[in-house]
Structure formats: C-alpha cells, structure tokens
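Minutes, methods subgroup
Present: GH (chair), OT, SY

1. OT presented the first of two proteins processed in the latest run. Sequence and structure tokens recorded below as shown on screen.
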Amino acid sequence: MRGVVKISGLIAASMAMMVGLSGCSNPFSKQPQAQAMEAAQTGPTLWESNLQYVRVVSQDSGAVPNQHPLPISQEDMRSILESMYVNQRVLLRTSQVPLFSPGELSTLSSTLSRGLGQAGPNEDVNFVILGLHQGAIASERRTNSARVFVDGAGRLNFVFGLIHEEYREKDQFTGQTIDRRVNPLLPGSRNRDSGVSTTVAQDNGISFYQDPNSGRERTDWVVIDIPTVLATAQERRQGQHGDINPQLVEDIVRTKQETGNLRDDMSNVKEILFEMSDEIERLREEVERLRQ
C-alpha cells in the first residue's frame, strides 16, 4: 500500500514539475518573436498553395507609411524579379544564378503587382514561395520569402526571411517530419536581420539597405530603384539584339515570350509533381502505420 502511495506521489510531483516547466520554457513551443511574426501574416490572400502564399498584411511595428498603393504592371514587375540574382557557391566555384525560378516568376509577377496596387500606406505584401533550382547534382526545392513594400522615396523594398533555403519535409538528422506550426516559413522584418546565408547580388539600381543610425548594411534587405532597374534591363535586351532588323527583333521577342511561357508551364507542372510526391509519401507512411 505504501508503495502505491509513494508511486502515486512521485507521479503527481512529476506532473506538477512538467506543468511548471511548460509554463516557464517549453523547448517545443514557438518562440514569442516567431509567434508574433506569424500572427502578423494574416490578411487578404492573393495566392495560396499549401505552405506558400502571397498576402497583403499590416506593416511591422514602428514603420513609417509606405507609398501605397502603387500601380506597377505585371510586365515591369517580372522584369524587376528577373533582374535579381544570387551569389551561389558550388564546390570551389561561385556564380550568379537567378533568384526566382520560372514558376516563381509567373506567380510573383502577377500577385505582387496586384498586391502593391491595392495595399494601403500601412500595409506590406508578404510572400513565401517554393521553386525548383539547380543544385550541385540535381534540381532542389528551395524557399524564398520576403516582405515587399514601396518606401516614401518610391523605391521597391524586399526584406527577405529566406533566400534559396533548401526545403525539407523531414529533419535531415532525426528523420522526423518537420512541424511547420512550430517551425514556420516566415518573411523578413524591418526590425531584425534575418541572417540569410545566401545574398542577392548587387547591380545597377539594386543595393542593400543601410541603417541610417549605425550605417550598417543589411544583406537580407534589398532596395530597388525601379526606373534604374527597368532601364538597365531594357538596355541589356537591346544590346543582345544589336543592329538586327526591327521586325526580326520583334519575332525574337515574341518567340522568347512563348518559350518563357512554355518554360513557366513546365516548371509549374514539375512543382505540382513534387507536391504530389510528398503527399504520396505521407499516404504511404500512414498506410504502413495502420498495418502495424
């Protein structure tokens, strides 16, 4: 009888200790900062697919009003997105590769254009998106996420949370499924540096934000001078064509556009197949658990 009493007492004490610890610090719960940031992602959804989305959301706390709404065409937005490259190191070689895949370009060029056109001065446009990018051996799914807005000077800002971050369904060490409620994919914030390991390459009209107080550059925060970037993109397109007959140039542009559309469609199909393969794998595991 005494043994039962002792055991029950130990159980009660253990439960009390667990409750106390969970109230103080639960290592499996979200950090307060992550909780606050995730809560701030709610707003009108322009596009959504599983964990991916493009949404109009409230600004970071303490931010100055944006120059919104700002009408920008889908074509101009695509030119800007196509102008953004990242510095990628594979083995001993560093090269610049496009920041966004064809599928990402197709989705973001339309949704960011619409979002900036309807957002108010106290709103940003956030996105989390997955794309297929060439890795060292094969194509990999990588995540890009950012907070997008036009500042008072008319410059387009991308505050990145993730840049070409390899996307995993399972932890590479434990093999356990990653709970995205605990480890959400988040865009960046004006109030803290995301500490991205991959950075956007600076170019004409593309630079890092410089803190006016400390003078420090933030490599997760990219500032884009829209007219400069669009003019540079146009010059480079014209430079590729040289003195070719204007009609032939028009045919080349049209063919490139059609090829680009086909490439976008193929990329979207590949990404859908990737998503389906993840779902099939989850169903297979569920069937295996039911058999046990």
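2. SY then presented the second protein from the same run.
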Amino acid sequence: MALCLLKGINIVRCSVGHSLKVLCFVFLAVFVTLESASALVRIKDIADLRGMRSNQLVGYGIVIGLNGTGDTMRNSPFTEQSLQSMLERMGVNVRESRLSSRNVAAVVVTAELPPFIGNGARIDMSVGSLGDAKSLQGGTLLVTPLMGADGNVYAVGQGSVSVSGFSAEGDAASVTQGVPTSGYVPNGALIEKTLPDYFSSLPQLVLELKNPDFKTAVRMTDAINAFSLNRYGLKLASELDYRSVQVQRPAGISSVRFISQIEGLMVQPDSPARVVVDERTGTVVIGQNVRISTVAVTHGNLTVRVSERPEVSQPSPFSQQGETTVVPRTDVDVVQEDGQLQLIGGTDLQTLVRGLNRIGLKPSGIIAILQAIKQAGALQATLVVK
C-alpha cells in the first residue's frame, strides 16, 4: 500500500512499480502548503459565537400505516398501551380488546431546535423504532410533542416517514439493505415555542475556536483589533484563553451587523502536530507539522491461513454395515514475510511519507509502526487512536 499526498483539491495517484496503480483512498495524508494565500481562512470558518447553538428535542410517538412490518404487541407491550390510549382519546373504547395489529410501531423522535428560529417555522425530524418492528417504510408519524431538556414542549411533529433502507424476506431467505427501522420526516416538526433572544442586547461577544490553539487565538485577536482600530478607532478584542476571544460591541451598531463585519476577516490558523488513526477502517491522517526522529524500523508480517475441506466417506456398494459419514480435513498454511530494517526520519511531511512508503505495508502495519514509534519517543506529534 502506498501513501499519497493530497495538495489542495488534487488527488494524486500512487504507482507501485510500473504496472500497478492504486488510488490511495484508504490511507490519506493531508498536506497543507505553506503559501500564505492558501493558509488564510475566514474567522467564521474557524470560530463559533458562544451561546449561539442548537438545542436537542425528543419525543415518543406512533407510526401507523406499516405493511405488516410493525411491532408485535406480545413483544412490545408499550406499543399496545400507546395505541389504546390514543384510540381512547379519540372516543374509541378498546380496553377489553386484545390488539394484534402489525401495522403500528412505537418510535422515538429527535430534532434540533436552531437558534433564533421563530414560531411557525419547520424543522426536520429523525425517527427510530423502539420495539421489534422490521421496517418503517411507508409509515406515517402521528402528532408527537417534542420536548427539551427542561420538559417544555417546543415543537409538534407529524408526517410521512422517509426510509432509505429496505428489507424483504421469504420462507428461506431475507435481504436487508441499510437500516429500515430508522428514517426522517423532512420539515415535519412545527415550532410552537422559542427560546429567549439575548443576542441583540449583549454588550460583548465571545468567539470560541473550533480547534483551540494559543497562537490562533492571538492571531484572531490581532486581526479583529487591526480592523476595529481602522474602522472605529478602538481595539475591541482581547484573548481570554486558548479557546476564547472576547470582542466588545461598539456603540451605535447592532450585534448582527458587527458580527457580519468581523466574521469575514482572514486569519492564518496554526495547525498542531497530530496523527489520527482509525483502526476500524485503517485510515491514517498525518498533519503537516508531524516530525519523526530518525529511527530504524523492521516489520515482519505473519499470515496464518486455515481452510476446511470436509470429505464424504461412503461405504462400499452392497455393504450391510457401513454408513455415510463426513470426515473433516483441515489445511493450515503459515507464511512469514521477511522483515527488512528501514530507516525512517522526516524533517517535513513529504520526506516522512516517502520513508513510510519504502516499507510497503498495509494500513494495519503502518498503524502498528506509528504506535511503536510513538512509544519509542521518536514521533514528535500527538497520536490520536480511535
């Protein structure tokens, strides 16, 4: 497996030898150039305004209209109780009846209440099965109150459930693709109550970096002060810590207009030396500032292959005592690849990638090497393993 550099938006194909060309989509190294024009980003892309966030809503509801793929009342008694309560509220008395419908499913509904949203607006909802329903395809969510963490109802949802997965089964086989027991209702929730708006009356605003860093916070403060000194004759920004920058709102201008002015300012963020490893997918992302002190690395792969070849043993023709049996046959093949000692050391990302590519390992092998180099104290970066 070869390691590629991604420069800008161009994807570089790595070639191994002269005949094999592999598109390196499994193991990526993100290479950010040091040109100032490409390193500058807007403040709005690296920082959020403190207090301007969404709030989580949750509710319990019933999906009807399923084609025999809903909950079984025996295994999901709460579905039967919910259905009985709903019918009683509509004037239908079913307390003495035993419900056995498979067209109903109990679900949990979740949504996000965006900031500064008004009454009457609509938001999307996510729906997930709570019982043993096989699919929510074709179902309709009945009126469901959506509550916040404080127990108050902020929205009411209802609508057709859209499901991307599907499930089909017969007597001897079944096919399932995606997750048919969860879906979403686009624009299905109607906002009934909003949160108080304190944003317009705040005398000072706090910007929080998405990737906290002391140098980035100082650079953002300097950029805002340079703008405010030229525009208003005052330095309005001051760094609080490595995550937060406080900005005073000048008199005679609204918070919205002031934020729109400073969020477009350009800042060069400082990127930490970090290696992110995902062992489940074999993905490794190496930051530009990662350095490895010169080390010698050897890695030998041991492969054990076990295969079963059962054979059928039958008695001779016209035999009176023998019987047909299955005799197990197992083949075990062990292959140990030679491990060659390689020198790895990089003063820049390109040299480091070239050194790792010389070893020619699979992602799992490179992950093991990076972890061993970190333990040896030669990886001058933070190793994040997921």
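Chair's summary of item 2: Helices lie at 36-39, 43-46, 77-89, 214-231, 255-262, 349-359, 363-375.
Next meeting: continue with the remaining queue.
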